[in-house]
Write a structure and sequence with these properties.
5 helices; 4-stranded mixed beta sheet; 2 domains; about 220 residues; single chain; alpha+beta
Length: about 220
Amino acid sequence: MTSLVPSDDMLLKEIRRIQAKQGSEIGIQKIWDYIKAEHPLWSFGLKRLREIRKKSSLAPSPGSGSAPVPVPPACKPEPASPETPPPGMVILNLNVIVALRSGRRTFLFKEPIPIEFTEPGAPRQITSVFLTNLIEKREAELVQANAWSCLYCNKPAEECYGIPSVVLTEKPPTIFNMTQPLCSMRSACAREAYGRMQAGLVSPDFPGGDVYHVPA
């Protein structure tokens, strides 16, 4: 399985999102836990996360001691929109395939993507931000548009947990995102989903799983 080293901007976005929901007093270990639960392939350390938080003036003041104030569901920040390609850039159509629950339902989106992002050697940090924003936006739209239940506890689904397979150098460039509706990414259901998805990656029957298989 290939790990991804997220950029400082990617981590800063996650810190801000989590602190908006959980309060600015949340500990750095909890922030790390939340990010790893949602992005298990990201590789980063607590020290780096703490430095980014401090440099951006998001760390709590010493001795402040105020209790976190959760953001009401109606006030949760909207998912970040994908970056708009600059004018004049050559654009290709990107197939974004979102497969729900082992392919029982499949959704296809056609998205514009700069041709530079599909070429071998494209800057990974830039393309990762672009694709992460795009996938999160489409997952959020699907959850809002469908009355789905959590796959594990049957509570109303609020989020999706998926592991995308990305092949940008093919024609057409394609993202295949196997996803599961969850009640929350901070629940026992999320841990169950993570375990099942990791086990599925090593299965020859996992759709798109060959992307993650390392030849012997």
